[in-house]
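dumping this here before i forget
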Amino acid sequence: MIRRFLRARDLDIENASKLFLKYLSWRRSFVPNGAISASEVPNHLAQQKLFMQGLDKTGRPIVVVYGGRHDPSKASLEEFKRFVVYTLDKICSRMPGGQEKFMGIADLKGWGYKSSDIRGYLAALSILQDCYPERLGKLFLIHVPYIFMTAWKMVYPFIDPKTKKKIVFVDNKKQKTTLLGDIDESQLPDVYGGRLPLVPIQDS
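structure:
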């Protein structure tokens, strides 16, 4: 964990120490029981928008998020923050020995203004970058509608330079080929031409 915080701050010990102490303080206050339970995030689990199964070619767990199913009107921002922590803790618990990162596929098919949640996106980004540094290995954005770029332009300035390098927009015509470059067909979700069925995050 200490190494991850150091890498996140380019081995600057002082800045890494500040980030780590901030994380410890946040964890004590936001997750006082040590973990977020499913009963604390019922509205987001009910939306069936996050799944986890399989490993990519480097052994990183694969997470699939359906952005179009996100409906911020159905729950508070605080519950969404808890859902983000619940999800990231689940992912970390599934990582094979020696592995520290995960791969994400963000499927934005059906995304529209109803799904847009700038406050939620910024909150999730802050938690990922400040509290789970160096956990994201790669993120594919697929089925990206043109309208999404309006929200993207608002969020992009807040993304850490290291995180930006891990985000890949995928051409619809090259989707399966691109995904198979990092994920074996036996581990690719069946909805994208692979062989593994999607498993809801709470059941993984």
